[in-house]
Automatic annotation (TrEMBL):
Domain of life: Bacteria
InterPro entries: ATPase_NBD (IPR043129), GppA/Ppx_hydrolase (IPR050273), Ppx_GppA_C (IPR048950), Ppx_GppA_N (IPR003695), PyroPPase_GppA_Ppx (IPR030673)
UniProt keyword annotations, A-Z: Hydrolase
Domain Ppx/GppA phosphatase N-terminal: 18-296
Identification of the protein by name: Ppx/GppA family phosphatase
Gene3D superfamilies (alphabetical): 3.30.420.40, Exopolyphosphatase. Domain 2, Hypothetical protein af1432
Pfam families: Ppx-GppA, Ppx-GppA_III
GO molecular function: pyrophosphatase activity
Amino acid sequence: MLSAIDLGSNSFRLQIGEYVDGAIRVIRAAREPNRLAAGLDKNNHLTDAAIQGGLDALRSLSSILKPYPISVLRAVATNTLRVAVNAPDFLVQAEAALGYPIEVISGEEEGRLIYLGVDNLLARPDERRLVIDIGGGSTEMIRGRGEAIERVESFSVGTVGQSLDFFPGGVITAAGFDAAILSARSHFEDVKSYYHKRHWKMAYGSSGTMRAIAELISTMGIGDGRLTAKNLDLLRLQMIRAGKISQLGFPGLRPERAASVVGGLSIMIVLMTDLKMPVMVPVESGLRMGIMWDLCLQSTEHDRREQSVSGFMRRYKADRKRAARVADWATVLYEKMAPDSDRYKKLLHWSALMHEVGMFVSPSNYHKHGAYLVENADLAGFTAREQKQMGKLVLAQKGNLRKLNGIFDNPDAVKAVLAIRLAVIFMHSRVSEAVDAVGFRMKKRIEILMPEKWLKQHQTLSYWLGRERDWWADRGISLLIRES
């Protein structure tokens, strides 16, 4: 059973689903409104009230999760926690309240997951499309063909900011709308040519605010009932006539959603007008469904992370044969050490594949350059935490071990570090034999059982292993090499 949690700028949402016959069936969905973005002060600090509201919402979602046998869950945070100065402090409390790790994802990763959810809903492999999601703190635009994304961008304009900045006190005026539209237009002006109608055939709106606007136009019988620029403008006029957000007694519009709808409408008017969009189709899919599909695909050969690593290696001109050799050896050695779980197995394999990308910057200290690139690149499919762990492993491949703060608290992480270091040593020593001949005993000290002939046939191997013994001793860990 899968679960996705989205800590959005306007509300926190949860979906629980299961994969059945090629589709994900949603079993439970929940929404906890809190308008987190409205809790940012002028210095981009979350207020105490906003933090408390967020923690209460997460405790509520945690209680919903408990009866379900969740096998895998991913919780992500979006724009507000990307910009909040005190987000790290909040996240420590938030993870304790939820009971699961929370990742702050980039706008581009958010867009990728949104598109993944929409693509799997539509199942139209050759369709050229534009997908737009207007959230509380940001707007994502993704252009693609079938499952392939051609361009994805995130813009720091959302429903909460538009509502607070241009309709203060909930007052709706023509001047307020004009200012909101002009402000929204400034965010998209430089990129609108990339998302123009000539690049796609169908446009889809995936956010709850966009679906709410579409429902209003349909149920109120505005124009022809479709989501078009003309009908959006007619809805704008009706809102101006109402005069206040609190007086928007539109059918089906929940009071807690009204402010977001007003702010979101100003953004939609700009996008549909400037991109020459004839009509937009609202869809019941987006970020949370994309997360669950991503979790499904990660357990198959369609893991997006494999593609990201391959593209990353290509970009930095890594030697694929050397990389594959080190990755295969590191994986075998890690398994020989009998780790407690598979948590580090894939991360170790990918880290080893990317272990020499830093050569692109400079052969000197390439492991440090590589660690920085891996940790800070936009690697689609990876969480920030995973990239940080891979960066640590790339950094760990050589040199002193004092730089690896925190890793030595986890026995499996220590085994992953030893595996990548030995794999790199074997490559530099020109070892060609199968590394499954190497054995390990790991209790209070590390014993490596090495075939006797290796030490005789590979002249530099003894030297490198001697250096390795010194590095581990520097961390207070005894490492012994025994011939087998």
